[in-house]
Amino acid sequence: MKRQHVLGIVLCGGLWGLSEALLGGRLYAAGFRQAAPVVLAVVAFAILTVGRLHVPWPGSSAAIAALAMLFKFLNEPFFACHLLGIFLLGAAFDAAWSLARGRTQPIVGAAATYAGFALFALTITYVFRYHYWVVGGWPKVAWHVGVLGTIAAACNAVVVPLAAAADKRIAALSARHASWRVWASRAGAAAAAALWAFAVVVYV
Fold first, then answer.
1. Hey, what's the torsion of the CAs at 65, 67, 73, 78, to 10 degrees?
2. Over the stretch 32-51, which tens digit does the pLDDT of each residue have?
3. pLDDT tens for each residue of 122-144
4. How many CB atoms lie within 10 A of CB 43?
5. CA–CA distances in Å: residue 84 to residues 103, 121, 165
6. By C-alpha distance, which of 113, 120, 138, 93 is closest to 38?
7. 114 in Cβ contact with 154 (< 8 Å)
8. Rg of the chain's alpha carbons, rounded to an integer?
9. For residues 46 and 49, what is the distance between their CA atoms, to the nearest angstrom?
10. Which of 7, 9, 28, 130 shows the greatest Cβ crowding within 10 Å of its Cβ?
11. What is the 3-state secondary structure of the chain?
């Protein structure tokens, strides 16, 4: 594995994790429990798209998700079910991207979102039998997948191609200036270090 690939996974995992810990925490604390999964999934897929373009091998998106999970320990109160949701969303994106062989058409974003939402709702309810979901039963599963999943899938059908196009445009601009690549690499390393240092300090 190349050094820049490791850096890409660490940086993207930190960015996604930070959005979950800070943005997600704010949304849940403010009472936007229904909107939070949609907003966080859109942010996650934008990050995952860029991450997969820079680390183009199967499993990298799941690795980013695994790192992002660590940031959820910063939240008070802590919800263990969120860890499962993050990982399954990353794994679903990984599978969809791999099956599409890197083609960033809208179907990748939509299919991965539906799969992630469905896997989470079914697993947390009928496998782990988390009380909050068991009480809600099938209606809660259907709402999470059919309503929230549909909204998130529609958004990600647009976000994934847009994030890919933006990344390619930036890459084309940086290719014209060799010094940009050096500074981008240094900035990425500094940002990754700052993100994880922040997490460690806050958690400790």
1. 10
2. 888 999 999 999 999 999 99
3. 999 999 999 889 999 999 999 99
4. 18
5. 27, 10, 30
6. 113
7. no
8. 17
9. 5
10. 9
11. CCHHHHHHHHHHHHHHHHHHHHHHHHHHHCCCCCHHHHHHHHHHHHHHHHHHHHCCCCCHHHHHHHHHHHHHHHCCCCCCHHHHHHHHHHHHHHHHHHHCCCCCCHHHHHHHHHHHHHHHHHHHHHCCCCHHHHHHHHHHHHHHHHHHHHHHHHHHHHHHHHHHHHHHHHHHHHHCCHHHHHHHHHHHHHHHHHHHHHHHHHHC
Name the residue with tokens 């403010």. 30
CA distance 68 to 94: 15
Assess contact for 96 and 108: CB atoms under 8 A: yes
User: Which tokens in the block code for residue 135?
Assistant: 């009480």
| Residue tagged 């309810």 (tokens) | 125
Beta carbons within 10 angstroms of residue 33's beta carbon: 10
